[in-house]
Task: inverse folding
């Protein structure tokens, strides 16, 4: 067997092993200990379905504070000029939240600073995660003060 | 071992695996004969393994996959073209993932790039994807595309990819290492290289990966709590993912039984799909059904990324048949 064939055989075996590890992790949540985690995760990402569902919709609200003390909502859509679900995904910072809650807080402060740098007319910026019940009438029909639950994330000043 | 039921079951399995009745019932042959038969069986198994992974054939099917993956990636990145400064330069709200990875030593100019650097890299990516799709400087184009897509992913786009995007990136890497540029490309037209035979390993990898996708997705849906009734569909239609068609359906006066039935049909279909795609007799119908399934997903939830799988179903077709079909079309045309 030539070295080329041997290396190809090894590569195929590794691929099969990683795929089996990904399948096992996808179906049972069990990660094979001898397969490196990034490879299992990679394989999982290539076969993971839409796992569950929410009965609520959510999005990030950014507000800026004027010199007179009033708060005004900042339109984040121009920073995330994509479809609504993609905007929400970009704002959720899920990768960082998965690591540790503290990491998520730090990252949201970093995001708030970046918004403040670009929004020169405000003295402070605060970020809040808003959650509201779904409605068949529209995505943000129930995004009203009486139906929103707010989770403060970060507030930064100049 | 002499249990007749066990022996019959074993024979049926071996016959199903194509070893027919030449394998005698355990205990009926001498140990030496058994050893030889065992060795033969292993050799046959290895032959099948090698035939599956290391066969050679015409590059036409791979070329079609190359064009499909390249065009699809071009569409994804051209769609972002109007928003490049906001999404990928320091004008926007970049939250790079680099510091979480081994690439922490990446020069700062690439971590918070000025707009001109971003545009330069973006133009390079589009050029390389055009090169990949058309087969011009195929290896270099593929390598540049693989590196730049990874860079943009770590820079800011990492929250966006779904399973479909990850698969497409995997297909890009696999095709980059293939002879997919030997047919239906600018180079093959110039040198008439389409008559060559190439390794079919990349085609097999793509087929196995698509199989793993459907098997993994369907098995998990069988066990996930959220997929045991119709609510997942009902609420998904009202989520941010819902497109006008989904909103129209969810506003209809339908019972939850409707959604539960659709979920049951989806799970059953996804479970059968990989088998149907491998079997020659059912291949055509499952390809058609798979295409309709992904088109529906695209129109309901805007998940266009799975549409790339439709042309890639060609990975399940005998490449000689694909080549013959294309030759026939060329001659008749």
Result:
């Amino acid at each position: 067997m030539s070295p080329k064939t041997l290396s190809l055989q090894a590569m195929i075996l590794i691929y099969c092993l990683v795929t089996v590890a990904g399948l096992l992790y996808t179906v049972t949540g069990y990660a094979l200990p001898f397969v490196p985690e990034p490879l299992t995760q990679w394989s999982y990402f290539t076969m993971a379905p839409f796992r569950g569902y929410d009965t609520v919709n959510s999005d990030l609200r950014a507000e800026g504070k004027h010199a007179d003390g009033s708060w005004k909502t900042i339109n984040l859509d121009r920073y995330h000029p994509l479809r609504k679900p993609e905007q929400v995904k970009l704002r959720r910072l899920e990768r960082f939240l998965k690591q540790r809650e503290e990491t998520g807080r730090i990252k949201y402060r970093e995001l708030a600073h970046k918004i403040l740098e670009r929004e020169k007319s405000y003295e402070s910026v605060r970020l809040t995660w808003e959650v509201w019940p779904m409605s068949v009438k529209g995505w943000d029909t129930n995004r009203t003060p009486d139906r929103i639950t707010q989770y403060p994330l970060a507030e930064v000043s100049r | 071992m002499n249990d007749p039921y066990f022996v019959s079951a074993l024979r049926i399995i071996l016959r199903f695996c194509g070893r027919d009745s030449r394998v005698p019932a355990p205990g009926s042959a001498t140990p030496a004969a058994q050893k030889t038969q065992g060795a033969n069986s292993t050799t046959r198994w290895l032959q099948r393994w090698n035939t599956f992974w290391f066969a050679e054939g015409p590059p036409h099917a791979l070329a079609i996959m190359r064009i499909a993956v390249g065009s699809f990636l071009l569409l994804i990145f051209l769609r972002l073209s109007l928003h490049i400064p906001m999404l990928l330069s320091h004008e926007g709200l970049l939250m790079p993932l680099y510091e979480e990875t081994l690439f922490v030593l990446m020069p700062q100019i690439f971590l918070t790039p000025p707009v001109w650097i971003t545009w330069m890299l973006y133009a390079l990516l589009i050029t390389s994807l055009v090169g990949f799709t058309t087969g011009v400087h195929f290896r270099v184009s593929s390598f540049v595309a693989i590196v730049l897509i990874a860079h943009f992913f770590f820079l800011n786009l990492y929250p966006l990819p779904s399973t479909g995007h990850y698969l497409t990136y995997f297909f890009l890497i696999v095709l980059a290492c293939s002879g997919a540029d030997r047919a239906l490309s600018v180079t093959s037209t110039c040198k008439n290289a389409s008559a060559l035979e190439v390794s079919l390993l990349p085609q097999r990898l793509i087929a196995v990966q698509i199989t793993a996708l459907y098997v993994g997705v369907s098995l998990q849906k069988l066990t996930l709590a959220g997929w045991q009734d119709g609510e997942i569909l009902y609420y998904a239609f009202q989520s941010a993912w819902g497109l006008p068609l989904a909103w129209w359906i969810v506003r209809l006066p339908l019972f939850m039984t409707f959604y539960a039935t659709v979920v049951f049909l989806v799970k059953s279909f996804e479970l059968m799909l990989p088998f149907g795609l491998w079997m020659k007799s059912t291949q055509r119908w499952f390809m058609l059904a798979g295409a309709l399934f992904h088109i529906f997903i695209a129109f309901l939830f805007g998940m266009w990324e799975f549409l790339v799988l439709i042309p890639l179903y060609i990975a399940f077709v005998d490449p000689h048949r694909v080549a013959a079909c294309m030759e026939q079309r060329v001659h008749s045309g």
